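Researcher: Good morning. I'm working through a list of sequences from a screen, and I'd like to move beyond sequence-only analysis. For each chain I'm collecting a predicted structure so we can compare shapes side by side. This is the next one on the list. No need for commentary yet; just the structure.
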Amino acid sequence: MFVLVEMTDTVRIPPWQFERKLNESIAEELNKKLANKVVYNVGLCICLYDITKLEDSYIFPGDGASHTKVHFRYVVFHPFLDEILIGQIKSCSQDGVHVSIGFFDDIVIPPESLQQPAKFDEAEQVWVWEYETEEGAHDLYMDIGEEIRFRVVDETFVDMSPTGPSSAEAPTSNAAEEVQKKEAPYTPVGSISEPGLGLLSWWTNS
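Model: Good morning. Structure tokens for this chain:
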């Protein structure tokens, strides 16, 4: 679920921090810049692990700050494919079941990856597994707040880098911008379409 990623960045330290140890100032600046941010094709950055190398620091004309190229390792949330995770159901929609693991809320289990046959209850706004038994079908509701075990089967990254304005698309750009704002930069995709996966309460022995 968590991995160490080797990264390189140039860190700017303002003059009023020169009295501090360089490593401390750099660590603080890196965490300010990266902590709780999604890096494209890398994952959700959690915290700095260590600094592996500091190159020479430079002060450029017109800027009293120092600029140091830093090689470091960062703790990143990036579950590998087929990893089994446990989270809580945050909400349900026609798009599937949305799951949270506490510090990360953008996990989705699409309808085709639920235990089948499944249906969406419009009145309750939850997904239901129509569990077949010898006595007939029983509706097992995926209620909000329930703990759920799922397998990571895919992931989607969206490049959230700002783009320049396009004069040709100016009249219709507002709608596209609104859609982009709502889109998550990193979305792990889960599946519960196997025995043992799904709500924990489904598989506990009574």
